[in-house]
Amino acid sequence: MRELEEALAAIAKAPDLEALRALKARYLGKKGLLTEEMKALARLSLEERKERGRALNALKEALEEALAKRARELEEEALRKALEEERQDVSLPGVRLFAGGLHPITLMERELVQIFRALGYQAVEGPEVEGEFFNFDALNIPEHHPARDMWDTFWLEGEGHSLPGPLGEEVRGRLLLRTHTSPMQVRYMVAHTPPFRIVVPGRVFRFEQTDATHEAVFHQLEGLVVGEGISMAHLKGAIYELAQALYGPHSRVRFQPVYFPFVEPGAQFAIWWPEGKKWLELGGAGMVHPQVFQAVDAYRKTLGLPPAYEGVTGFAFGLGIERLAMLRYGIPDIRYFFGGRLKFLEQFRGVL
Ligand code: YSA
Predict the structure, then answer these.
(1) Predicted structure pTM score
(2) Is residue 329 over pLDDT 60?
């Protein structure tokens, strides 16, 4: 029985389940001590075998019980330890998920609109599917005029379409995806009388090959100011204010003559970017062409409205928002904006 006591003590002290398995094999396994003793029974007399057999069975039961008890203890201990180690610290800050944010073009557009609002401009928007009349004819770009080649156009298939005009009236004609935000000049002038100052942010479309600085779908900001005595000096002042707001007091503006059918004179303008030490070509501008005012008044007449643009002058400008955002945020390729890569967009979380 000394053996039993030793065995029970060893089981009770087994440090882990591995050791317990070894002890079980040692005593109860195929070649275990107890098994050997059982085999030895055969050599005993019947009387001795009975007595010894009973004792061995009791021993076996005692060992099995002790093994099961220690196994339970070890399992409980392991569980307790695991629970303790794996305890969640709910006070730790969590991993931040990117829950979405404003697109860099939206940020740039909002910044521009904000700048012009502060100068007394109102922001208005127009349709992306536009009539040929508003996108071209009323802007002094008649059919077959070579200037139409300046804007490679996505036309909507089929003839006999109609769309709502500036006052909701039905306008019939060919439809297209607007190639610039300038048609909103016409729409706004038809529906309002001067003086006014507006900016028109929006998406425009061109049937163009894309490269690092050209997209087929991009954004423009149009500006239009009409009233008595509006001059080129006012246009320069407006672009100057824009430059100051974007790049501070050391910025400058530059105008160079250029042709657009809907302005006379026409100009392209650039802003001096002090940190980059570069001129940034931003867009086109000019004094609203008298032909545009005449087209607007002629259209008003068809709606039964009196002429409103005799004796007034105005300036207009249109700039590319992507080009400006590229410089502002240091983006080398325009195609990143709408390439749909979250890694790119996530960088603008919290800008502005
Ligand atoms: C001119 C005179 C006005 O009185 C009013 C507006 C204008 C601008 C005219 N409507 C226009 O669209 N001119 S533009 O074809 O030279 O485009 C203006 C700006 O849009 C460009 O300077 C450039 O910044 C941007 N742009 C043009 N094509 C682009 C583009 N940006 C990205 N991808 C393209 N494919």
Answers:
(1) 0.76
(2) yes
